[in-house]
Amino acid sequence: MTIVTPESTTVKRPRKPTALFLPExxxxxxxxxxxxxxxxxxxxxxxxxxxxxxxxxxxxxxxxPGETEVEQYKIAKRTLVVGLRKTLKFDPSKxxxxxxxxxxxxCMGHCHYCYLQTTxxxxxxxxVYVNTGEIIDAAKKYIExxxxxxxxxxxxxxxxxxxxxxxxxxxxxxxxxMAKEPLGRxxxxxKYQHVEPLLALEHNGHTRVRFSVxxxxxxxxxxxxxSRFEERIEAAGKVARAGYPLGFIIAPIIWYDGWQxxxxxxxxxxxxxxxxxxxKGLTFEMIQHRFTKTAKTVIEKRYPxxxxxxxxxxxxxxxxxWGQNKYVYPDEQQTALREFITERIFEHxxxxxxxxxx
Length: 358
Ligand code: SF4
Fold this sequence. Notes:
Keywords: Lyase. The chain is an alpha/beta fold.
C-alpha cells in the first residue's frame, strides 16, 4: 500500500509573473503638465489611485518617510518624479554606444551592485522626462553632426526604461523615430520582461534590444525586484520574433565558488530556451564586476546582508573615467572569465558576435 503523505500531494503552484511597476507616490514638476506626456501620466496616476503632489523641482524632494536611511532609500525607489530634462547635451556612452540618450534616471530594481547607487547619491528616486520631443530633436542634431558615420544611442545608461514603458511610452517614441533615421541606431538593455508595448512597432532593425542575464547565483543573490531569468528569456524570444536585433549583456560577471558551472549553465539554458532563429546577428557584451570605494560604503549600508564580495585586497585598481579608482578582477582572473565564457558562447551560438569584454 502506498501511504500518501501531505508532502507528496503538494502541488507546486506556478509563480506569479513579475508585476508592472506601480509607484507609491508621484511628484509632478508644474511644467510637466504642459506636455501631452505629462498629462497622460497624470491621468494614469489618477486612474491607479496613486497619491501625487506638485513640486517646483525634483531637487526639493527630500524628507522621505521612514525611520532609517535604509527605509527612506526603499521608499525613494518607489517614488516617481515627472519632470523635464533640462540638459540636452548627451554624455558619451562607451563602449556600448556613442551617446547616452536620457529618457529616465533611476530604477525600481534593487541590484546590489548597481552603479546608480553612487551616481544618483542621495536622489535614488525615479525621474521620467516628458519633453521627449526636445530630446529627439537633440538626437537628430548629433546624428547630423556625425554624418556620414552611424550614431548609436544607449537609452539605458541611467535607468531600466523597459520597466517604465507602461508609464511613459518613451521607448516607443525613440524606436519609431530611429526607424526612419538611416544613420541613427538605438539600443537599450533591460532586466524586465514587459516588452509587449514594443512588439508591434515599426523599428526597421535600427534598435537592438538586449537583456541582462547572469548565472543563477548572481540573479538570486544580487538582483531583487527585477524579472526572473525565465521571464527575461521569454521576452527575448518575443523581441526576436518581432524582428528586433537581439543581444545579451552578461553583467556583472562575478567570480564565486562554482562560477564555471554557473556561467556554463547560463549559456546552455539560453541555447535551450531561445527560438533557433535568434542565433544569427545575436550579440553578447561582457562586463566584469567592479566597484569604487564609495560604492562599497553605500552598498554595505543599504544591503548589509549582501554576499557581494568587495575586497579591495583581492582586486586590481583601475583608474576610472569619473576620477575615482575602480576595483576590477586581477588580470589572471579576468582572462579566465573572459576565455571561459567566450568559449561557452561560441559553443552554443557559433554565429553570434562578441562586442566587448570590459
Ligand atoms: S535593473 Fe539595472 S538599473 Fe535597475 S537597479 Fe538593477 S542594475 Fe540598476
